[in-house]
Specification:
The protein is an alpha/beta fold. The protein has 10 helices and 10 strands.
């Protein structure tokens, strides 16, 4: 019977970067002999709802990001190749400063001075686009608008007819379990309620990909647990690709269908693997935590992250 660590490495065989510092830091995490296993240069992963041969919702091709200061050039991200599919729930982990948020900002279209190509639904992506929804650490709601009006704002700017806007907002309020809070202003809502409204606003324009930058980091532990349940239910109903930045390994194991671990200096995708605990999306959080593989997977991921940190 393979160990949890072997399952992780079998799923991600050959996905580690070839650079010496990453391979040396990973050696202690790999089963004996696994470094000699055949390596696939371009792994392919499927979302739960991906049809065979369907195009990615988003694709990054040889993407790199660097900054110049005087004569010095700092490479932030190097040679990122990534395909995201409908119904993927991708959680991105990595040491602080590895470029997770920079990667999200590139997908959002906020950082455009890059090398490489980005495709959203098969089309070139070179700036903010309704096909990509973004949820930040802070909800950033309009304080003078109600929950319903905040969700409706993008629809109104897009010229969607009023009747369609109302029905869409009604459906989204039901999805986020805030049907009875439509007329509340942001200051009348809890932090978790405000973040749910922000998520609904991102979903309103039928975005192909929803980017979430540590959206629960400012919440207390109990609210965070509740929001993890909500985001999982919202993802299941929405059927979109969620790209979720987090520093919380336990959160990643509970939510993701797919786990990405980044290395630093420069930022690269070190590992990209299916979450072995989420083969059945109906399994609840308590059952996942009770799974005997859970604590070992958490430890293995933490060691992988710590092994790929680098102080610049």
């Amino acid at each position: 019977m393979p160990t949890n660590l072997e399952s992780l490495n079998q799923a991600s065989a050959g996905l580690a970067s070839a650079e010496d510092q990453n391979r040396s830091s990973a050696e202690s995490l790999l089963p004996p002999g696994s470094l000699n296993a055949p390596r696939r240069p371009e792994p392919v992963f499927s979302g739960l709802g991906q049809e065979k041969g369907s195009p990615p919702a988003a694709e990054l091709i040889s993407v790199s990001l660097s900054y110049r200061r005087g004569r010095q050039t700092t490479v932030v991200l190097s040679d990122i190749n990534l395909s995201l599919y409908d119904r993927d729930f991708v959680c991105v982990l990595g040491p602080s400063g590895c470029g997770k948020t920079s990667l999200l900002n590139i997908l959002a279209g906020y950082l455009t001075d890059i090398d490489g190509r980005i495709l959203i639904a098969g089309h070139h992506h070179c700036g903010p686009d309704p096909k990509v929804g973004v949820v930040f650490q802070s909800p950033n709601l309009f304080p003078w608008l109600t929950a319903a009006k905040n969700i409706e704002f993008g629809l109104r700017m897009a010229g969607i007819p009023k009747a369609q806007r109302r029905q869409k907002v009604k459906n989204l309020l039901a999805m986020i379990s805030l049907e009875n809070s439509a007329d509340l202003l942001p200051h009348q809502m809890s932090g978790g309620m405000r973040q749910r409204v922000a998520i609904a606003r991102a979903l309103a324009l039928d975005s192909k990909v929803i980017l979430l930058d540590e959206p629960f980091s400012a919440l207390d532990a109990l609210t965070r647990e509740m929001m993890q349940q909500h985001i999982r239910n919202i993802w299941r109903q929405a059927g979109r690709c969620f790209f979720f930045i987090t520093h919380d390994v336990q959160e990643a194991l509970l939510l993701s269908t797919r786990l990405i671990v980044m290395s630093s200096a420069p930022g690269r995708i070190f590992s990209d693997l299916p979450n072995p605990l989420r083969q059945d999306p109906e399994v609840g959080f308590e059952a996942l935590r009770a799974d005997p593989r859970f604590p070992k997977l958490r430890t293995d991921l933490l060691e992988m992250i710590q092994g790929n940190s680098c102080i610049i």
